[in-house]
Amino acid sequence: MTTESSFSVSIAYQISEVGLFMNKNILIIEDNENNALLVKRVLEAHAFQVIHAPDGESGLQMATETKPDLILLDLGLPDVDGQTVAAFIRRVPELEKVPVIALTAWPEDTARSMAEAYGCDGYIAKPINARTFADEVLAYLPTNTTTSD
């Protein structure tokens, strides 16, 4: 294979890979504006559609209205806490199968056990690593689903 055709295959792969995510909607429920902005920018750079809710109450409303493909949930929200948000999501038939991933700065053992106890599908530690974050999210996002309407 020539260098030019290798390059073409590489570009085609990258385009098809991006195509997997272009219509994937991710809801971030995060009260820290700086954390939310970083998460949003990293995911948008990988062609995800991202919406942000600054608190648990608006997060519940947005989740119900938008039916995202994945929810990133700060467990330490100041109003409606992460446990309440996750429990609510699991009781809504249209949302019960949506992956809910805890975002937390808690120590790993605590984060893992709390995320599991709250009904989350996993957790990602904060602060996020901008280089690996999209791959971490991707690990929880089924690629064979269709976009939520």
Describe the structure.
- The protein has 149 residues and is an alpha/beta fold.
- It has one domain: Rossmann fold, CATH 3.40.50.
- It contains six helices and five strands.
- The chain has a five-stranded parallel sheet with strand order 2-1-3-4-5, sandwiched between helices.
- Strand 1, helix 2 and strand 2 form a beta-alpha-beta unit.
- Helix 3 packs parallel to helix 4.
- The termini are far apart.
- The N terminus and C terminus are likely disordered.
Main sheet: strand order:
2-1-3-4-5
CATH class identity: Alpha Beta
The helix/strand order is: HEHEHEHEHEH
Mean pLDDT: 85
State the end-to-end CA separation.
Answer: 42 Å
Task: Report the structural category.
Answer: alpha/beta
Number of helices: 6
Principal-axis shape? globular
